[in-house]
């Protein structure tokens, strides 16, 4: 048997060991919980920082805003939904603005997902007498190098228009060259519509039927004359006619290739469809029942609200900061 002294010593040792184990377990548990809490805290702070950063990007420095005809800010999805319910979408761009070209591509992607083989594209930047080589490019009979060296392309083609043309090629979407060859627009600028009457039948196939309808009192055309006069320069009465023959020819080739049940998206400088004039006027003049949606592009010092000068000029207005970098 153990003596009382040895038994007491044994109990003290057991208490000391047990207390030590308990302390060790508690310490490990506390440390483990601390590590979990630290990890949770780190992740929480990361998510919070990311949220603040994204919120700042969205609210403090937005790259664009879209406004409807009433001047209310709307999401891109609203534009897509409205565009999917019409016959023709006229997307007026600022030629050197990267946001315009990016949204043109994104709108094309979104509408292609809905309409597939019913979607058609066309653009001011491609002249009607280039239709053959464009179709050869779309059918992959001509490579990029030959196409870009032989077709008459704008200086910003590679950055701004090539992505849409390539998307059309890769997805089998028709792409129509709608604009009048620039040499014939220059002829109108010098000699009026009469100058076109001496062209050959072959040349005339690239132009809207003559004589084109023309209303010099339309504010857009009238404004061109007033602008020249206001600047103290020589007033060329043919200048708005040169603009009109472009509008008429683009409308002509849109209608020539459009058919009921299709959706045609056309890209052009915003002036060609602002105030529902230009291309819109010629389309409606030939087919009043067409459902047309117009998009205007504008630059403003702030995109927080739609300025009065840009209000009511289109069904949707794309507003971009005037400090946005340019493509050329």
UniProtKB/TrEMBL annotation:
Domain Haem-binding uptake Tiki superfamily ChaN residue range list: 79-283
Record SUPFAM superfamilies: EreA/ChaN-like (SSF159501)
InterPro entries: Cofac_haem-bd_dom
Pfam families: Cofac_haem_bdg (PF04187)
Protein name, UniProt field: Haem-binding uptake Tiki superfamily ChaN domain-containing protein
Native organism: bioreactor metagenome
């Amino acid at each position: 048997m153990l003596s009382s002294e040895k038994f007491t010593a044994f109990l003290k040792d057991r208490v000391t060991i047990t207390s030590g184990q308990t302390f060790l377990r508690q310490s490990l548990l506390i440390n483990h919980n601390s590590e979990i809490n630290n990890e949770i805290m780190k992740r929480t702070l990361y998510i919070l920082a990311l949220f603040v950063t994204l919120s700042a990007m969205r609210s403090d420095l937005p790259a664009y805003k879209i406004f409807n005809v009433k001047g209310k800010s709307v999401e891109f999805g609203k534009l897509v939904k409205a565009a999917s319910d019409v016959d023709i979408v006229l997307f007026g761009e600022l030629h050197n603005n990267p946001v315009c070209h990016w949204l043109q591509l994104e709108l094309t992607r979104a509408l292609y997902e809905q309409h597939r083989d019913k979607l058609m594209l066309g653009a001011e930047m491609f002249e009607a007498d280039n239709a053959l080589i464009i179709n050869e490019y779309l059918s992959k009979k001509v490579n990029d190098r030959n196409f870009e060296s032989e077709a008459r392309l704008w200086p910003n083609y590679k950055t701004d228009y090539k992505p849409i043309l390539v998307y059309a090629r890769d997805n089998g979407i028709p792409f129509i060259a709608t604009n009048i060859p620039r040499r014939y627009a220059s002829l109108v600028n010098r000699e009026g519509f009469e100058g076109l009457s001496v062209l050959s039948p072959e040349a005339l196939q690239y132009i809207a039927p003559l004589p084109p309808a023309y209303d010099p009192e339309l504010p857009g055309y009238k404004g061109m004359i007033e602008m020249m006069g206001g600047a103290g320069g020589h007033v060329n009465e043919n200048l708005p006619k040169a603009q009109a023959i472009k509008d008429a020819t683009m409308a002509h080739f849109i209608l020539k290739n459009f058919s009921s049940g299709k959706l045609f998206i056309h890209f052009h400088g915003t002036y060609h469809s602002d105030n529902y004039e230009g291309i819109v006027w010629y389309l409606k003049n030939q087919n009043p029942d067409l459902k047309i949606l117009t998009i205007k592009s504008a630059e403003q010092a702030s995109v927080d609200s739609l300025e009065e000068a840009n209000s009511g000029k289109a069904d949707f207005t794309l507003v971009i900061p005037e400090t946005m970098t340019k493509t050329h």
